[in-house]
TrEMBL record:
InterPro entries reported in the protein's UniProt record: AMP-bd_C, AMP-bd_C_sf, AMP-dep_synth/lig_dom, ANL_N_sf, FAAL/FAAC
Domain spans labelled AMP-binding enzyme C-terminal: 460-570
Family to which the UniProt record says this protein belongs: Belongs to the ATP-dependent AMP-binding enzyme family.
Top-rank taxon: Bacteria
Protein name: Fatty acyl-AMP ligase
Organism ancestry: Bacteria, Bacillati, Actinomycetota, Actinomycetes, Pseudonocardiales
Annotated AMP-dependent synthetase/ligase domain residues: 28-415
Pfam families xref list: AMP-binding, AMP-dom_DIP2-like
Length: 574
């Protein structure tokens, strides 16, 4: 049976040859001129955020200057890595690289805690000819990179306007490094055609309008979602971009919501944990300053969307004017630029409860009790199919399998990794009209009543005694224990003498006096009763010690590695 889902109407990308984010910047500079293009809320300079702004004309002029400087030291097609903190200067650096015809590599400054290994590996992989940073970070970046030319973009003098060649749409625009192992980072090769198609798909799907919509984001600009929301969609759609540092959000999530309140027609996006975190941390006094009635879309993606999170966030901010239909759950990945599917506008995302045992066996069967999944909607201009996990052919109706994606937003492969690329990108059957193949996402999902439901990741499945267990379901059960800090649990499998065994790692809740041994025993019992799974080990860590990604999400892969190499032992409680 054909399992290809249909896209939302109005999301087709129309793209002229030679267009790029950098050429469109010039178009918006002429059209919008002195209107503000980028606002960076600097919470290091002032607790409430000192606004650093660039108009469209100013941004275009600064990007011209950086591109001119780059053309003196690098040839088109060479890599230009961006190593800077979140700022308006980051936007200038990234767009300057594109305008000069270089392949941008959005990364981060060396000071990001816990990620020096990943940064070093990414630089070794992409071998940049030039590195772009700021004067404040110049010395640290030069010491860390020790080789490429280093340019501080905020010190580049302005130049007169000049004509820049339009890029071939099928040449690389930038390399998007995935958040995998620090030893083997993979840079997804994204062309100008890929990224502009996806940015336009996002604008259409999110209801963005030129000149009246603001894209508000604390997501790191070196992440796929942060880059498209903070730079890509604004360049494609003529949207104002309002940025803040991820740390500013984590310190006080009300800052994000105040930025939304101050930006009429705002769209934004964040992982699921951020919505629950905001609902828990924003005080009643802070809510007095919030008006969320004009928010257009709040995208929840990059990790499984929990029904409880949606309900908690809506309950917390309904009094601030937040409308339920603003919540938009989505699915995406770096290999597809970012966005693949999203729920429709105007109504809350659909939630369906499936029989837990049947779901673990690979079939989505509605039930009165079980696992409730939130729909990720319809493709935003791509094709999606579910592959049978055994045969690789189309899955049967209601069968869980690997999500495959095809469309103009799908990247060309991994930089310098032909074998890995061939295993993931361009899989048959090829589209007879476009020649596009299928991207194997590594994610599991099911098409139910025409909508996509994501059930987990293939590599994260915990398989014990021949049964599949989705880690997010078990993590939810673990986090219901009062001794566990909310959104701190990671569940993963390790190789044991008798096959795979399940391990739970979680942070102890702040202020709790619970006995760790007793709490671990109670968690084992709860997981056994709720999931029929015997837990091999329960590890409690102090608050803030569970390994996370640079955007604050729990990293199961890093947790597994730290457990296996025994580096968690020194921090283990009890």
């Amino acid at each position: 049976m054909d399992t290809i889902s249909q896209p939302l109407p109005g999301t087709g990308a129309v793209q002229a040859d030679g267009e790029s984010f950098a050429t469109l910047l010039g178009y918006w500079a002429r059209r919008l001129g002195d209107r503000v293009a980028v606002t960076y809320l600097d919470h290091r300079a002032a607790p409430d955020g000192r606004a650093v702004t660039l108009t469209w004309r100013e941004l275009d002029s600064r990007v011209d200057a950086v591109a001119a400087r780059l053309s003196e030291v690098a040839d088109p097609g060479e890599r230009a890595a961006v190593l800077a903190g979140q700022s308006a200067d980051y936007v200038v650096a990234f767009l300057g690289a594109l305008r000069a015809g270089l392949v941008a590599v959005p990364l981060f400054a060396p000071g990001l805690p816990g990620h020096a290994g990943r940064l070093a590996a990414a630089l070794a992989d992409c071998t940049p000819r030039v590195v772009l940073t700021t004067t404040a970070e110049f010395d640290a970046v030069r010491a860390f990179t020790a080789g490429p030319v280093v340019i501080a973009v905020d010190a580049v003098p302005e130049t007169g306007p000049r004509d820049w060649p339009c890029p071939d749409p099928d040449t690389p625009a930038y390399l998007q490094y995935t958040s995998g192992s620090t030893r083997t980072p993979a840079g997804v090769v994204l062309t100008h055609r890929n990224v502009l198609a996806n940015a336009r798909q996002a604008c259409a799907a999110y209801g963005a309008e030129s000149g009246s919509t603001s894209a508000v984001s604390w997501l790191p600009l070196f992440h796929d979602m942060g880059l498209i929301l903070g730079i890509g969609a604004p360049m494609a759609g003529g949207l104002a971009s309002v940025l803040m540092d991820p740390l500013a959000f984590l310190e006080r999530p009300a800052r994000w919501l105040r930025a939304l309140s101050a930006s009429p027609g705002a769209i934004s996006a964040a992982p699921d944990f951020a919505y629950a975190y905001s609902a828990s941390r924003v005080t009643e006094d802070e809510k007095l300053y919030l008006d969320l009635s004009r928010v257009v879309s709040l995208i929840n993606g990059s990790e499984p969307v929990r029904p409880a999170t949606v309900a908690k966030f809506q309950a917390a901010f309904a009094g601030c004017g937040l409308r339920p239909e603003v919540h938009r759950s989505s699915y995406g990945l770096a290999e597809a630029t970012v966005l693949v599917s999203v729920t429709g506008a105007g109504k809350p995302a659909r939630q369906v409860t499936f029989d837990r045992d049947r779901l673990a066996a690979g079939y989505a069967v509605p039930a009165a009790e079980g696992t409730t999944l939130v729909s990720c909607g319809h493709p935003a201009g791509q094709r999606v199919r579910i592959a049978d996990p055994v045969t690789g052919g189309p899955a049967a109706p209601g069968e869980v399998g690997e999500i495959l994606v095809s469309g103009p937003n799908v990247g060309r492969g991994y930089w310098g990794r032909p074998e890995a690329s061939a295993a993931v990108f361009g899989l048959p059957p090829l589209d007879p009209e476009t020649g596009e193949g299928w991207l194997a996402t590594g994610d599991l999902g099911v098409l139910f009543d025409g909508e996509l439901y994501v059930t987990g990741r293939l590599k994260d499945l915990v398989v014990v005694d021949g049964r599949n267990h989705y880690p997010q379901d078990i993590e939810h059960t673990v986090e219901e224990h009062p001794a566990v800090r909310p959104h701190s649990a990671a569940v993963f499998g390790i190789a044991g003498d008798d096959g795979e065994a399940a391990v739970v790692v979680a942070e102890r809740a702040k202020g709790t006096e619970a006995d760790i041994g007793a709490a671990a025993a109670e968690i084992r019992a709860a997981v056994s009763a709720g999931h029929g799974l015997r837990v091999h080990d329960v590890v409690f860590l102090p608050p803030g010690e569970v390994p996370r990604t640079s955007s604050g999400k729990i990293s199961r892969a890093r947790c597994r590695k730290s457990y296996v190499d025994d580096s968690l032992t020194a921090r283990r409680l009890g």
